[in-house]
Amino acid sequence: MKYSQTEHPKGRTEVKNTTCYMCACRCGIRVILRDGEVRYIEGNPDHPLNKGVICAKGSSGIMKQYSPARLTQPLRRKPGADRGDGEFEPISWDEAFSMMEQRLRQIRETDPKKFALFTGRDQMQALTGLFAKQFGTPNYAAHGGFCSVNMAAGMIYTIGGSFWEFGGPDLDRSKLFVMIGTAEDHHSNPLKMALSKFKRNGGKFISINPVRTGYSAIADEWVPIKPGTDGALLLALINEIIKQGLYDREFLIQYSNSAQLVNMDEASSEFGMFVRTEVPEEEGCFDPQNKLWWDRKSGQPVVTHTEGADPRLIGEFRLDDGTPVKPSFQLLMERVKEYTPEWAEGITGIPAETIRRLAYEMGVTARDQKIELPIAWTDVWGKDHESITGSPVAFHAMRGLAAHSNGFHSIRALSILMSLLGTIDRPGGFRHKAPFPRPIPPCAKSPKGPDDVQPNTPLNGMPLGWPADPDDLFVDDQGEPVRIDKAFSWEYPLSVHGLMHNVITNAHRGDPYPIDTLLIFMANMAWNSSMNTVEVREMLNDKNEDGEYKIPFLIVCDAFQSEMTAFADLVLPDTTYLERHDVMSMLDRPISEYDGPVDSVRIPVVPPTGECKPFQEVLIEIGSRLGLPAFATPEGKRKYRDYPDFIVNYETEPGSGIGFLAGWRGKGGEKFMKGEPNPNQWKMYEQNNCVFHYELPKSYQYMRNWNQGYLEWAQKHRLTRYAEPILIHIYSEVLQQFRLAAQGKTQGKQPPERLRKRIETYFDPLPFYFEPLEVQLSDKQKYPLSAITQRPMAMYHSWDSQNAWLRQIHAHNYLYMSPDLGEKEGFGDGDWVWVESQWGKVRCMCRFSEAVEPGTVWTWNAIGKSAGAWNLDQCANESKKGFLLNHLISEELPAHSDGEHLSNSDPVTGQAGWYDVRVRVYKADADEDKVVYPQFKAVAPVPGEVSRRPNWMTYFAGKFAKGGSR
Amino acid sequence: MTQLALVIDLNVCVGCHACVTSCKEWNTSGMAGYMADDNPYDADPTGTFFNRVQTFEVGEYPCSETVHFPKSCLHCEDPPCVPVCPTGASYKREEDGIVLVDYDKCIGCKYCSWACPYGAREFDEHQKVMKKCTLCVDRIYDENIPEAERKPACVRACPTSARLYGDVHDPNSEVSIAIREAGGYQLMPEWGTNPANHYLPRRKTKIRIHEDELVRSDNPLKKETDRPVGPIDEPTLDDVTSW
Amino acid sequence: MHPAFSVIFLTTLIGAGQGLFLALYTSESYAAVKLLPVQSGAFYAWGSAISVVLLALGLITSFFHLGHPERAWRTATKWRTSWLSREVIVLPAVLGAIAVYGAIHALGWNLTIVGIDTGVSNDLTLIVGAGGVLLTFTLFLCTGMIYACIKFLQEWSTWLTPVNYLLLGTASGFALATVYASLFAPELVYFLGGWAIIILLAAFVTRSASLIRNARLKPKSSLQTAIGVRHQTMTQRSQGQMGGSYNTREYFHGAPMWVFRSIKWVFLVLVFPLPLILLSVGINEASFTVLSAAFVIQYLGLLAERWFFFAQANHPQNIYYQTIS
Ligand SMILES: Nc1nc2c(c(=O)[nH]1)N[C@H]1C(S)=C(S)[C@@H](COP(=O)(O)OP(=O)(O)OC[C@H]3O[C@@H](n4cnc5c(=O)[nH]c(N)nc54)[C@H](O)[C@@H]3O)O[C@H]1N2
Ligand SMILES: Nc1nc2c(c(=O)[nH]1)N[C@H]1C(S)=C(S)[C@@H](COP(=O)(O)OP(=O)(O)OC[C@H]3O[C@@H](n4cnc5c(=O)[nH]c(N)nc54)[C@H](O)[C@@H]3O)O[C@H]1N2
Ligand code: SF4
Ligand code: SF4
Ligand code: SF4
Ligand code: SF4
Ligand code: SF4
Ligand SMILES: [Mo]
Question: What CATH number did the domain enclosing C206 receive?
């Protein structure tokens, strides 16, 4: 072979644009095909998100497309075979549809909540949520509850926006970047791009994390912290920043509720609420501006934002009627008083000196390196500003904060710290992504009681919503849950993303009631997205005395033969991302940029494999067959030909002009955000790199919580209903209302007795530090270590082990730990060890590392696999040497004073407490098997899969050559 | 004379492996392909890769660093792998300094790989020839590719742009400037191979706070307390003396 | 390095072949100046045949080392730079020279066939043989230099490498010649066996020297120079792939440490003292059996020696491949 400049492998070459889905980051890609086979997938340079770059997973899309683990036919569990054995027979789609239609029709006619639809790390919540609502079942949620709902709730309830996928750090202009508990987040490529630019611009990057992996590798400073203790650190930082006077007073006064006066009359039913001047007739979904400040010039209370007033942040006052009041900032100051750096040192393991220095670095950088952009804007109070100002201190945080049962309050503390530094939606700090900011809390509400669930009727409300007070809870008259996952109940009132991690356990126990059909889409609930995996697998296979399964019917839609599909009664083979239409809608997790809204689509680049059918088409077909109003006319006729047709023509309400896609709306594609359906919408997306990006005018790009121009624009384009300011909730009245209810001081819904104390404790209007619940209930002498996981950059959850290239990078995993531990326990690097929690134990191999806090052990997430799954050989490293930490983690807390079956979750949000588990590690006996424990019965390939894998292969697009087979 | 090369900035490399799989993907169906995979779905999967990312831990807790280290052929200016090749299959191009293997001449004796101190060559057990990074020679000169994209696959993929590409002999190129200004270095200089690829070291940013910066004129706490005003009606010196 | 069996057999077989030829030629030269009894042409012819067979076997096994033996002809093209190429050219030349040498003996030719009468009956073989000897030495040099020229394989990169190839090959060839002589020319046994012992002793000195040298070697490359980070404590966390790669297969011998260490003693015993004793005993008794045992044991020892030679070489690339995770 010569490397001449012109010689090329022959073949017909085509280039097609679409959007990657090797992870949830949603980069724009170009797929180059040769003779119809994928030759190369590269980043699309014209895409606003990734600007041409691509990651390890994205570049391995070929091996996903041609994986031998792909499902290619609908499958029915063989009569007589047990769930989990993975024994199936192929059926036709007709059969599959009629099975589902029959079953679901019957459920919908009788008790729609007996149908539960839960989805994993998908990007289809707009459609799946719509389907559930239309069906009439409240039992719907996606991965959010076990993923990072603390992040969403903690920040959205505080600043109206959040990290995760709703906002992020402005590293372009930042000088100091503090990343807390993040390994490899959703904004995967963009964050990497931004980080390198930031570092090259001379910014300082601090990572606070028990482990130095992922992005932290290139941090200028690594601050190791004990897991679950960030709340203490953040509160100490707040303390120090206030003490040193390093906070942004002007910002807090104008843009937060810091100066608003709180009623301090303990006897009053309004105790802890803001004092209001008058109560307006109807409060909408916004903060009415009827609160008071204490004006330091006049020494009098005035209505907030009174022209010329300068309120006090600190002090204690009495209103004319004698009511004692304090600005909420004063309460914050009192709260953090005892949270000194010395106190935090004892909890976090970070020297007090370091904590002080961090506070100074943040505070001094924020104060002394002010950014001023020559952009004029007008605030909602009508005041014109000559410029946009900001402070170059940016934060980012993810599951290291979120996945602890004290995460909600830690994240509130972080939001408050960011606000004290004046960095909310300002250059150099945190920036929102459309459609954020939202009102606090956002307007969507779930149904409020059992009567909202009726046969043959769409649900009255969204399956998931944002409670603003106890009356928004979804409970029955006894205050007990209506949803199968107990979301929006007194157990986890602000569980705005549901609690998917408890669905199987609850349904198995029939608590609060048994269900009939569970439809799982794109979630591996028999493996890595369940806690307590060993038992969950048994529950899935458990039967009543009458021989009927406790969960009678299980449908799984997946693209691969996963651990979960083995348990299905009916398997629906999905297409891959290269084979289907998809939309990345702003109604789901947005992919917007800081400068304006973005959404995007996927357009098939290769035909579906075998009989694979996009799940979207399945939902539309079933919806049409069942006559759900969104999908069928009142006469029962199908409304939409297929999913692309649905996307173009569906409007949230007839004539609303709002649909799943915001770009190229209106008859000729001349409108955006809102506008009548455009029959050529797909074409227009296709011509524009599959992405729509609207760049807001500069003056609308910042301070959006209070930016008149932006808020009016958002209102006009129907992003929001109200153009009212979104004040930062330093002090959370929402939480206080729940506390008042628990104290029996309110008229509305009341918690059941057993939960009163829990609600009163955890619904504190100001952040506080407490040990994660599971840690409180663990024997820390016996289990001295924390065990956590990390995302590896080159693998997505469990779904890449079938990928021949990626699995060479991570074929199995080790338990990483400080060498001290081995020394103490008498084992060496690479030895087999047992890691044991109060819930179970796992045998695995260890690796010593200097990059981990000595009280912590960790491993890569979801590398270990069950034997035979993913059509891997039974001897594959993944099942023999790879292990899953989930076996050690419980989905429920041990029975304690607050109850028996409480989820192992944050008491406020129901966020799964993945990283709270405590373990011990000890040497495995020399004569023990050198394989991972536990092992599961191996499954065989299913019909339609390649049953003989090549023992070597070569991929050369245009003539996919397989090597010898065994 | 031109010497094309990669310059890898360890200061920003996050170890994401994008360069690893994008290289595999480009090259397996390209001029240097295929790149076989053995046991792709069995125990101990292994395959041909032209580029690998390794990870090192430097220092001891808590002062430890995690250094990700990508490595492909360094296109040495004095490549020991070339003169040893008995067939001339291994050669260094005059025009741009790229070190290549001509698969049609290679007899698969592996001798060149022994002669590479960096372990940058990979023998393909199925095609029975020696393979290695080609610096994407079938991309960088391909006139069917838009000029801005005529760069190695790994360079285009890299999310942190840790991989710079250009002519290290042109003193004004981006790579030469980076080597000069950021202290670029070569691997195993002791063997005189003079690798064309260079690495840029970690650089630390620190913030130094002077204690004066903490005594602030703009301390907002000042606004929260009234300036102490003495009471008018209590005794003062004025009441007891006159001067 | 991972010892390749093709290369182990190649080098030991051609070493013995070359040594045998050198032994034959030496005895012929001594005979020419009347220091030794003259042997029949058949003796040299058959001896050369054995030598040719050994060299040819070596050549054949070397093909097993090649991915594309059908392109082997190409290897002759880079003799200007490549010792391997040179070896590939010289090996057939040696083979040819010895074959011609043997053939002339078989045919009983001398310079009279071109009309020159030197009065020496084997003048032609002496001249052709001298060329053969030159080529043989060149071949030893090439073989040795293939290894010695790789600077960073520090265990190999020494003048001792070609010297050891020369001495070990010659010693084994002389031993073989002694066996051969014990059957067909007993009067040469003392001479050949004596030289076999002397060369073996010399080889012992140089091989021990290289072992001692290698034991004292300080690797020039370290993790510090390999990745360019100057810090005292560093470890590899991950080599970037888990199921192994060409780099983990080709450059590690893969044997447990105790095997590696014991092979050294095995070869030291099998190559030097045992053959020495057996040769001494065998010479005195002119015993074919004892002498054959000496040669066979030594040859086995040389296989072990060659294995060790490869296994002991620490390729600096291994610094990059230390930890799986
Ligand atoms: N111990 C521990 N456990 C964890 C976590 C942790 O940090 N530690 N993280 C948690 C978090 S945040 C999350 S989000 C969950 C993720 O957990 P899951 O959502 O369960 O994620 P996966 O297992 O990767 O993927 C789910 C399924 O999607 C399938 N799939 C892939 N592509 C397609 C497709 O195109 N169509 C269809 N229909 N299916 C497809 C895969 O085959 C796989 O079976 O894991 C949770 N589990
Ligand atoms: N390549 C890849 N990318 C992914 C995914 C993937 O599977 N692979 N998954 C996607 C999904 S669904 C999600 S939710 C995101 C999650 O993105 P991340 O939140 O970055 O994911 P995790 O790996 O869970 O990272 C948690 C980090 O928090 C640290 N940590 C744990 N406990 C504590 C603590 O108490 N305090 C502090 N400060 N740190 C702590 C851990 O050491 C770890 O580094 O990633 C997304 N991106
Ligand atoms: S970050 Fe995610 S979406 Fe982007 S290229 Fe990688 S896998 Fe694809
Ligand atoms: S792609 Fe870039 S950041 Fe990622 S490992 Fe390679 S060089 Fe490092
Ligand atoms: S890195 Fe190795 S293969 Fe590449 S030119 Fe240098 S010596 Fe040759
Ligand atoms: S393996 Fe091929 S390229 Fe390498 S030395 Fe042998 S012939 Fe030359
Ligand atoms: S330059 Fe090309 S061949 Fe070399 S490592 Fe990069 S992508 Fe691979
Ligand atoms: Mo997640």
Answer: 1.20.1630.10
Give the Cα separation of A914 and A146 in Å (integer).
8
- Token pair for A484: 């199968």
Which stretches within A502-556 are classed as H helix?
503-509, 533-540
Least Cα separation, residue C25 to chain B (angstroms): 31
For residue B90, the one-letter residue type is S
Hey, is C3 helix, strand or coil? coil
pLDDT value at residue A121: 85
Structural domains counted in chain C: 1
Q: What proportions of chain B, in percent to the nearest 5, are helix, strand and coil?
A: 20, 20, 60
In a domain, C15, yes or no: yes
Show the ligand 7 pocket: residues with CB < 6 angstroms.
B 23, 26-27, 50-51, 72, 133-136, 152-154
Cβ B205–A205 below 8 Å, yes or no?
Answer: yes
Q: State whether the beta carbon of B17 lies less than 6 angstroms from ligand 4.
A: yes
Closest to A96 measured CA to CA, from A405, A536, A555, A736: A555
Report the DSSP pairing between strands A553-558 and A570-573.
parallel
Strands A570-573 and A75-77: antiparallel
| CA-to-CA dists, residue A498 to A153, A633, B219, angstroms | 12, 31, 44
Answer yes or no: do A808 and C237 touch at CB < 8 A: no
Is residue C324 assigned to a domain? no
Domain that holds residue C246: 5-319
Question: Which among B62, C219, B193, B5 is positioned nearest to A350, based on CA atoms?
Answer: B62
Contacts of C235 in chain A (CB under 8 A): 850
pLDDT tens across A329-338, in order? 999 999 999 9
C-alpha B151 – ligand 7 centre gap (Å): 9
Q: What is the pLDDT of residues A395-451, one digit of tens each?
A: 999 999 999 999 999 999 999 999 999 999 999 999 999 999 999 999 999 999 999
- Residue pair B33/A39 in contact (Cβ under 8 Å)? The answer is no
A290-304, A640-654, A945-959: range with lowest mean pLDDT:
A945-959
CA pseudo-torsion sign A769, A775, A779, A783: negative
CB C189 within 8 A of CB C164: no
Residue with tokens 């760069």: B151
- Residue C101 Cα distances to A406, C12, C110, angstroms: 91, 22, 11
- Per residue in A608-620, pLDDT (tens digit) is 999 999 999 999 9
Distance CA A346, CA A226 (A): 10
Strands (E), A59-133: 75-77, 88-90, 115-119
Q: Which of A278, A240, A446 is nearest to A354 (CA)?
A: A240
- Residue A961's pLDDT band (cuts 50, 70, 90): low
Model confidence over A58-86: pLDDT tens digits? Answer: 999 999 999 999 999 999 999 989 999 88
- Residue B227, pLDDT score: 64
- DSSP letter for A257, please: S
Q: Domain for residue C325, yes or no?
A: no
Mutation choice for B interface testing from A53, A187, A369 by most B CBs within 10 A? A53
Is residue A1 very low, low, confident or very high in pLDDT (cuts 50, 70, 90)? very low
Confidence of residue A3 (pLDDT cuts 50, 70, 90): very low
- Burial environment of residue A412 by CB neighbours within 10 A (0 to 12, 13 to 18, 19 or more): buried
Which residue owns the Cα nearest ligand 7 atom 1? B135
* Residue A10, pLDDT score: 67
Q: Is residue C170 part of a domain?
A: yes
Dist CA A242 CA A255 (whole Å): 17
Provide DSSP, A189-221: HHHHHHHHHHHHTT-EEEEE-SB--GGGGG-SE
Per residue in C33-89, pLDDT (tens digit) is: 989 998 999 999 999 999 999 999 999 999 988 999 999 999 999 999 999 999 999
